[in-house]
Amino acid sequence: MIYQGNAISVATNGDGIATLTFDLKDESINKLSSSVVGELDEAVKALQDENGIKGLIIASAKEVFIVGADITEFHGLFDKGEDFLIEMNQKVHAIFNAIEDLPFPTVSAINGLALGGGCEVTLTTDFRVMSDKARIGLPETKLGIVPGWGGCVRLPRLIGADNAVEWIAGGSENKAQDALKMGAVDVVVPGDQLEAAALDILTRANAGELDYQRRREEKMGPLHLNPIEQMMAFETAKGYVAGKAGPHYPAPIEAIKVIQRGAGEGRERAQAIEAKAFAQMAKTDVCFNLVGLFLNDQVVKKKASRYEKQASNVTQAAVLGAGIMGGGIAYQSASKGTPILMKDIKEEALELGLKEARKLFAKQVERGKLDTGEMAERLSNIRPTLSYGDFGHVDLVVEAVVENPKVKDAVLTEVEEMVGEDTILTSNTSTISINRLAQNLKRPENFCGMHFFNPVHRMPLVEVIRGEKTSDAAVGATVAYARAMGKTPIVVNDCPGFLVNRVLFPYFGGFSLLIEHGADFQRVDKVMERFGWPMGPAYLLDVVGMDTAVHANEVMAEGFPERMAREDKTAIQVMADNDRLGQKNGKGFYAYEEDKKGKPKKVSDDQAYELVKSVVAKEQDFSDEEIIARMMVPLCLETVRCLEDGIVDSPAEADMAMIYGIGFPPFRGGALRYIDATGVAEFVDLADRLADELGPLYAPTDKLRQMAKAGECFYA
């Protein structure tokens, strides 16, 4: 044994081949924490001091290779300032350069995920062999930074500038065969042949058959691009990537600039450019929030894993109601491998549900994600039925009939008689109390809410709503099923609107007040879209449907009358009264026409403006900042109330629900992180000023005032 640490060991075989193995103790994955990087430095120095070594294999003893740096350290490290970060990266560059400069051939044996810093480790070696099931990539731009340990330097010299820009700016995970085509790896083999393939490459390199020194020279020198090729590779890419990333995500464009600035430089100079750019991006608010988002996502996943441990497997599901929503649920279940019965009382409804599922599978075939055989196989996982004949073998039922408490109550009590005693019943309700729906059930402990968001196949969030009598086993099974469907489940407690809709409707309340005070709803949309929302509130209401919004608002007003009940008509009610329901009937705040692809395209409609005039109480001009404040404060305050009321357990879960459920701008980190960024005291002052004019919807809670006085925040 040449070296032994907590995460890294180095040993040689009898033929002079050394293997540096990553195997972080007490962890299921390998990651490059500060201590692991320190061990890597020691291990490389041990290799430099050892005589008789003829080659090195860098390998992993875990199912993954290395998933990247330890992101839990990022906030603490990034807080130390730009100079510290530059120096930190330069120290890592020195370690990685030492691997690249070892006096014998080197190869990485990539057995699983090699991402970020893990990918950059592999780029230091002369060769790379990869398991056919592994993936590789540089996802740093998704965290608001650029690769900082040589990714922007080595990858373009390995696979070409245009390919490297695509990988780095896109932050994608790439399959083994794609990596092979690009030239990022040299060999792709089944996992059990990985070591043999690595040894074969080293043998051929030592025999002179493979020129490993020339490989190094290519990685260390400037990129071979003339000025015209540079312009084509970089300037064109900047325009395309800027359009795709949008103005709020600067890291993809910065990554292209780093590659461009370093293109004419040697290794060390290009690495210095990269280190500085990394440090600058690491200090941005966008990076801080996206790192926080990643950490919050880990909290949500760990919590879901704990729930899953209490669950029995869902091997057969069922959905009641075969409309667009039921068909979407059936598709999602079937596409991820859980067979599902789709029941309705009408043949035409079943056909509508199957049509929706077929359409979604056909899109997967068009995109090359499935072939027709796979589509047919997955579609066969959906079994339409008009009866309860096979429901005795169902593990979990999703009720997805109309949003009417009497209809849902009748359907749930009926299906309870047809399933086994351990079958979990769930309701895909967006507003109706789970406790209310459980009142007539014989086994309320087996019942909870399972709120999907529309469209089911795109929206990642599922709210799992716990009622007063819901058991841990029911919650666990529902969480497990949601995860098996590829969704992110967040467990919340029962209340009007649960978490997401309870928070969304004060946002719509702020919008209604703005219109009444003379704001142009199209301008409000534009301001909020520039703020980062995927669509403004008027457009979002058209997508949700005005009738749905009116119904949900009635539920909210009944549950929280002090701040959500309104005596006067709102613009939303006026639209509904005039049969302007939004996209579903082609007219709402906007009118809708079909574009070339047959999708609804919004256009301005004078009639909508005429109708809105009936609710305008006074004419007033608003700055962008005033519009943002009047929209965001009620949403953020209701998120605070949900946390204080115990509807959601943690700030992390609350913020992730906002991002996954209603499209809260990810680069702003969520509602509670947005309050932290504003400053809790400053936010309370702003809310108080608005509450004086606009009422209880804008009034801070007592606990939030206490936090402001104590200088506390939601995230440490």
Automatic annotation (TrEMBL):
Residues 497-592, 627-712 form the 3-hydroxyacyl-CoA dehydrogenase C-terminal domain. It catalyses: a (3S)-3-hydroxyacyl-CoA + NAD(+) = a 3-oxoacyl-CoA + NADH + H(+). Pathway: Lipid metabolism; fatty acid beta-oxidation. The keyword S-adenosyl-L-methionine does not apply. One of its GO terms (molecular function) is long-chain (3S)-3-hydroxyacyl-CoA dehydrogenase (NAD+) activity. Its EC number is 4.2.1.17. GO terms for biological process: fatty acid beta-oxidation. One of its GO terms (cellular component) is fatty acid beta-oxidation multienzyme complex. Residues 317-495 form the 3-hydroxyacyl-CoA dehydrogenase NAD binding domain. CDD domains: crotonase-like. Gene3D superfamilies: 1.10.1040.50, 2-enoyl-CoA Hydratase, Chain A, domain 1, NAD(P)-binding Rossmann-like Domain. Keywords: Fatty acid metabolism, Isomerase, Lipid degradation, Lipid metabolism, Lyase, Multifunctional enzyme, NAD, Oxidoreductase. Pfam families: 3HCDH, 3HCDH_N, ECH_1. PROSITE patterns: 3HCDH, ENOYL_COA_HYDRATASE. It is an enzyme of class 4 (lyase). SUPFAM superfamilies: 6-phosphogluconate dehydrogenase C-terminal domain-like (SSF48179), ClpP/crotonase (SSF52096), NAD(P)-binding Rossmann-fold domains (SSF51735). PANTHER family: TRIFUNCTIONAL ENZYME SUBUNIT ALPHA, TRIFUNCTIONAL ENZYME SUBUNIT ALPHA, MITOCHONDRIAL. In the central section; belongs to the 3-hydroxyacyl-CoA dehydrogenase family. In the N-terminal section; belongs to the enoyl-CoA hydratase/isomerase family. This is enoyl-CoA hydratase. It comes from Litchfieldella anticariensis (strain DSM 16096 / CECT 5854 / CIP 108499 / LMG 22089 / FP35). The gene is fadB.
